[in-house]
Design brief:
The protein is of the alpha/beta class and about 270 residues long. The protein is built from 11 helices and 10 strands.
């Protein structure tokens, strides 16, 4: 198992083999993102990027009955100078960009409200399961700022430009059902079921060939930035890396022997 330091703002656990659970853990302040949480999450994403060990899927959730993350900690930000604000934001930028670049898939188990930077962090995950009681908003324009943790890029890619502009320009909250209808979240579950369902899906992903899953994540991510014919070629380059792997040989053998494949990520 991977070992992590003890973090001030985040709980780390391994609820099942190959699965890492990250729990935003500032429930007294709605799991708001402060400077320390920025350092903690950046450290986690960096470690997983350098060597994920036996971790094949990550689930990210919040320590609260009602709130996933209320966004940036505005109490901490009150009275910050421009230089302090920008220094903190550069940390948050590195945090989200490192998460998005990280090769291991991340599922957001949005257990409650996800506002502003909280919704942006969820949108940086590969996909989202949400509580039926959750509400969502990108409220930055009501505070005199704008999303700066990927919101103006990840949201339109999920819901289309026109819906995204309405959400971004109004700052209006929307509910879990709207979030699913519009494509922000994949599935909506009863509040108590969100984390178990996310962990169950993580278990399915962790049972598949880890190198295949990583190549899929990479192909979707980078192919989406390319002209289609180039993207097709990129997909084949990603595919060709898998042909010679032990796991590919094991996968086909297991199929022919009518048994479950045992993948090793090699």
């Amino acid at each position: 198992a991977m070992s992590f330091p003890t973090y001030d703002t985040v709980l780390i656990s391994q609820p099942a083999p190959h699965i890492l659970q990250i729990t935003l853990n500032r429930p007294d302040v709605a799991n708001a993102l402060n400077t320390q949480m920025g350092h903690d999450l950046l450290d986690i994403w960096n470690r997983l990027t350098v060597d994920a060990g036996d971790i094949r899927c990550v689930v990210m959730t919040g320590a609260s009955e009602k709130i996933f993350c209320a966004g940036g900690d505005l109490k901490e930000r009150n009275g910050m100078s421009k230089a302090q604000w920008q220094r903190q934001h550069e940390l948050f930028e590195r945090m989200v960009w490192t998460q998005v670049d990280m090769p291991v898939p991340v599922i957001a188990a949005v257990n409650g409200h996800a506002y502003a930077g909280g919704l942006e962090m969820a949108l940086c995950c590969d996909f989202i399961y949400a509580s039926s009681a959750a509400r969502f908003a990108l409220t930055e324009v009501t505070l005199g700022i704008m999303p700066g943790a990927g919101g103006t890029q990840n949201l339109p890619r999920a819901v289309g430009d026109r819906r995204a502009k309405e959400i971004l320009m109004t700052g209006r909250p929307f509910d879990a059902q709207q979030a699913q209808t519009w494509g922000v979240v994949n599935e909506v579950f009863a509040p108590a079921d969100v984390l178990p369902k996310a962990l169950a899906t993580a278990g399915i992903i962790a049972g598949n060939a880890p190198l295949s899953v990583r190549q899929v994540k990479k192909s979707v991510r980078y192919g989406g930035q390319m002209e289609l014919r180039t993207a097709y070629r990129f997909e084949i380059e990603a595919y060709n890396h898998l042909v010679d792997t032990e796991d590919r040989i094991e996968g086909v053998l297991a199929f022919n022997e009518k048994r479950k494949a045992v993948f090793k990520g090699r």
